[in-house]
């Protein structure tokens, strides 16, 4: 189409009512505008859009040009400034509802490789359009924030300072979202102070709270935050916590009484959001000044347990670490031996992948319990954990409690009296009798043997409890007898495995000698051997030898236990 034809079409559009425009007119207008952008004539397009006599056309069909203009802006070409000016003019001139829906379509169609640039480009225009809306502002803000959050969640979350430097734009996007919501937060705050809250204000407040809960779950629950180091995500976390307080939603109500259930579904996602809120408040100390000091440490721990449990049961390392940190912080404020027994039912989990950190937290927790609570906790863990390493940790703590009670003459029934036998029945026990996998249960078995040896050596203090001593002797005899059978069977099995491995290695050596000079064939033979057993012969040999050493250690402890028992009988 030549210039004269274009001018004729434009003249017709200037004199045509909007209702009389046809779909092909919109498509035609888009084609002309896109051609200007692609051919580097954005300055001419801008002049056209700003021309007073064209405002009717711009108002009616201008929004169709938002997409090609955005593409040119993101491409960072030489016409970027003209395109930005044209984009801004359209968002200010076209009908706000039409512009708003057009901008939402652009967000929903965001290129995965340009998420950050798209969000940071569009948010100022979205804010301007939202502020122009006369009605339905709250609902529109909610739709806008939800669409932006969907795109935000597609960006990777940086976990280290180095990754933050290479961040694909998550931090910038978070800053843009904070800036977008700022005038609406201020509006809610201002009207709340004036006691002039309207239905629209309440709806606006609800959408802001929903947005805060969305961002607490993602990206803040994923992010690695450190109050000693400022980062964009750290700043964003502070902004979100401040917003929650500024829109007059008390933090205790959100955390302890789930006051947002009227706005947000009371589901797993809501629980994750509140878990992150608890972490930011109690671990990172963000907005701690807005949290009243009237709640007891035990009450706070009790309320936080649902969040701790939720995070520790996650498969994501960032969640687990936050759960451990919140657990530790909640425990540190509780006085020793002051936790109620009923809290134990919330602690029947031990699937913590961060083993060392997890055991440290559990040790802090154990120190906060009185004797009865410790006894019940140990029983619960020995019955439900199904993890030898953790059970060994529990058995070691049982020994420490017995030693403390006997050393200081503390005649409590839980660890130096009649109730101790119920724990010993769970400790001196092989789950599958003679078929028990000794290597899998090694940690618990070794700690159990050490506890048994210690108890026999403290015979004088324990014999005053006749029933306890009699039960200990019975358990010792049954446990040691079954363990010897189990060791004998296991040793026989692993010895035969060692012999079979030695034969395999001989055959392998013979094959390699036969294939001498052909490196490819030698390599093929070795790979075949490794694939057959899923590990190299050297690795298998090391495991088998380690098993034999373990059996030797167990038998050594058993021999020492029987020596002590014989000495006590003679006395």
Short description:
It is built from 27 helices and no strands. With about 575 residues, the chain is mainly α.
Secondary structure: elements and pairs:
Elements: H1 3-14, H2 23-38, H3 42-50, H4 55-61, H5 66-75, H6 80-93, H7 96-108, H8 115-132, H9 137-152, H10 161-165, H11 170-193, H12 199-220, H13 232-246, H14 251-257, H15 268-282, H16 297-312, H17 317-332, H18 355-367, H19 371-384, H20 388-407, H21 413-416, H22 420-427, H23 442-457, H24 459-462, H25 466-514, H26 519-533, H27 537-570
Helix pairs in contact: 3-6, 5-6, 7-8, 7-9, 8-9, 8-11, 9-11, 9-12, 11-12, 11-13, 12-13, 12-15, 15-16, 15-17, 16-17, 17-18, 19-20, 19-22, 20-23, 22-25, 23-27, 25-27
Which structural class matches the secondary elements? mainly alpha
The coarse silhouette is elongated
Q: How many helical stretches?
A: 27
Q: Uncertain spans, ≥5 residues at pLDDT below 50?
A: 346-353
Span between termini = 116 Å
Radius of gyration: 35 Å
Query: How much is the average pLDDT?
Result: 85
Number of strands: 0
Q: Could you describe the largest sheet, including whether it forms a barrel?
A: none
SSE order: HHHHHHHHHHHHHHHHHHHHHHHHHHH
Question: How much of the sequence is in beta strands?
Answer: under 5%
Helix content: over 70%
Descriptive account of the structure:
Helix 8 packs parallel to helix 11, helix 22 packs parallel to helix 25 and helix 25 packs antiparallel against helix 27. The protein is elongated, with a radius of gyration of 35 Å. Among the domains are: 94 residues, no CATH class; 101 residues. It has 27 helices and no strands. The chain is mainly alpha-helical and 571 residues long.
């Amino acid at each position: 189409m030549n210039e004269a034809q274009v001018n004729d079409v434009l003249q017709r559009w200037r004199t045509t009512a909007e209702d009389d425009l046809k779909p092909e007119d919109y498509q035609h207008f888009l084609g002309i505008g896109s051609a200007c952008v692609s051919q580097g004539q954005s300055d001419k397009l801008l002049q056209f859009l700003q021309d007073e006599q064209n405002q009717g056309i711009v108002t009616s069909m201008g929004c169709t040009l938002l997409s090609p203009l955005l593409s040119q802006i993101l491409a960072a070409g030489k016409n970027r400034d003209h395109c930005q000016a044209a984009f801004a003019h359209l968002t200010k001139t076209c009908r706000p509802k039409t512009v708003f829906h057009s901008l939402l379509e652009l967000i929903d169609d965001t290129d995965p490789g340009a998420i950050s640039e798209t969000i940071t480009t569009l948010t100022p225009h979205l804010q301007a359009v939202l502020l122009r809306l006369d009605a339905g502002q709250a609902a529109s803000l909610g739709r806008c924030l939800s669409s932006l959050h969907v795109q935000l969640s597609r960006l990777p979350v940086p976990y280290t300072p180095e990754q933050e430097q290479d961040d694909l734009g998550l931090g910038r996007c978070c800053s843009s979202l904070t800036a977008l919501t700022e005038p609406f937060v201020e509006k809610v705050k201002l009207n709340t102070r004036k006691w002039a809250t309207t239905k629209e204000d309440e709806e606006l407040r609800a959408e802001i709270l929903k947005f805060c809960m969305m961002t607490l779950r993602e990206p803040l629950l994923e992010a690695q935050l450190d109050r000693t180091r400022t980062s964009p995500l750290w700043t964003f976390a502070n902004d979100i916590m401040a917003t929650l307080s500024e829109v007059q939603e008390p933090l205790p109500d959100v955390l302890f009484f789930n006051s947002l259930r009227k706005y947000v579904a009371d589901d797993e996602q809501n629980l994750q959001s509140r878990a992150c809120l608890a972490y930011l408040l109690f671990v990172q100390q963000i907005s701690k000044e807005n949290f009243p000091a009237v709640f007891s440490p035990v009450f706070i721990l009790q309320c936080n347990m649902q969040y701790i449990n939720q995070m520790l049961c996650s498969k994501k390392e960032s969640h687990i670490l936050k759960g451990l940190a919140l657990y530790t912080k909640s425990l540190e404020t509780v006085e020793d031996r002051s936790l109620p027994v009923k809290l134990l039912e919330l602690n029947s989990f031990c699937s913590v992948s961060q083993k060392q950190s997890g055991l440290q937290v559990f040790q802090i927790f154990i120190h906060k319990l009185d004797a009865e609570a410790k006894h019940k906790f140990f029983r619960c863990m020995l019955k439900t954990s199904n993890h030898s390493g953790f059970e060994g940790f529990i058995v070691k703590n049982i020994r420490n409690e017995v030693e403390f009670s006997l050393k200081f003459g503390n005649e409590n029934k839980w660890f130096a009296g009649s109730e101790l036998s119920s724990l010993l029945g769970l400790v001196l026990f092989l789950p599958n009798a003679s078929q028990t996998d000794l290597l899998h249960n090694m940690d618990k078995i070794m700690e159990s043997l050490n506890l048994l040896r210690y108890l026999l050596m403290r015979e004088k203090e324990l014999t005053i409890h006749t029933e306890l001593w009699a039960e200990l002797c019975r358990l010792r005899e049954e446990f040691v007898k079954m363990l010897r059978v189990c060791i004998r069977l296991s040793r026989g099995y692993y010895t035969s495995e060692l012999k079979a491995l030695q034969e395999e290695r001989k055959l392998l050596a013979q094959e390699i000698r036969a294939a001498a000079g052909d490196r490819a064939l030698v390599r093929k033979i070795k790979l075949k051997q490794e694939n057959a057993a899923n590990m190299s012969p050297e690795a298998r040999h090391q495991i088998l030898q380690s098993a034999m050493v373990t059996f030797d250690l167990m038998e050594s402890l058993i021999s020492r236990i029987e020596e002590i028992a014989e000495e006590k009988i003679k006395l």
